[in-house]
Amino acid sequence: MLILLLLFVSVSFAQEKLIFAVLSYGDPIKEYKRYSVFARYLSEKIKKDVDVVIVEDIEKLFQMFKKKEAHMAVGCSVVYFELKRQYNVEAVAVMKINGKAVENGVLIARKDSPINSIEDVKGKRITLGSPICMSNCVMPLYMLANAGITQHDVINIWSSGTDKGAILALISSIADVAGVKEESIKDYQQYVKVIAKSPSFPRHIIMVSKNIDKKVYKEIEYAIFSADENTLKQMEVDGFVKPQPKMFEIIKNYRKVLELFPVLK
């Protein structure tokens, strides 16, 4: 009976799934396609089922880790810092897409606007593409803070929830300035202009809970950096790079930046 019980436990453990939570930033269909390829590849390599869950709400993502319903995630630097701080999650890799493992946030205005620099933002209405993420919230606020601008220096500042929402609010004159991810403006360049660009920081960070089995954690890490060309092509990525501490230096004090804009909390 003891042997049978041990065999049952062993088989049960072997069949346990890993949940890979993908924080959606754009097209959830495209994201599901990309990360389904990644999950299938990992499943084959580590001999354990990996299921993809697309999450559009940051709080839901945090709750999944709190309840131990998620074991891996991909998201921005702020998400990584919060998951690391609260739920013992570590950055394993940074995805490299179109030759870049980093990204930038930008402050934009309408093409016909008299706003041409960050100094011109005072007394204006600002919208952000996200209430928390790095490129379309923290870095725009970082640039404002470096210019000596806080929420008391603007008429209003709010999150539109998505970059598209923020850009449309800008184009329709609901906002005077928008803070978004640089790559989000590529389809709107005839309507908008960049008035400030942030320093670079990591994008698309693959994170893994350190609460999972150590052997499985190492297998995941090894598999990521052993991805073959066909898998990378299907994912539409160039590859993965190892996270370096200097990558996160610019953003380690992001909480202090957010404190200057408490209306966004």
Describe this entry's structure for a reader.
The chain has 265 residues and is an alpha/beta fold. The protein has helices at residues 2-15, 28-46, 58-66, 77-87, 134-146, 163-171, 214-224, 229-235, 254-259, and strands at 18-23, 50-55, 72-75, 89-96, 102-103, 105-110, 125-128, 156-159, 177-181, 192-197, 201-202, 205-209, 239-241. The strands form three sheets. The chain has a six-stranded mixed sheet with strand order 2-1-3-12-4-13, sandwiched between helices. Strands 8-7-9-6-10 form a five-stranded mixed sheet. The chain has a two-stranded antiparallel ribbon with strand order 5-11. The longest helix is centred in the N-terminal third of the chain and has 19 residues, at 28-46.
In short:
The chain has 265 residues and is of the alpha/beta class. The protein contains nine helices and 13 strands.
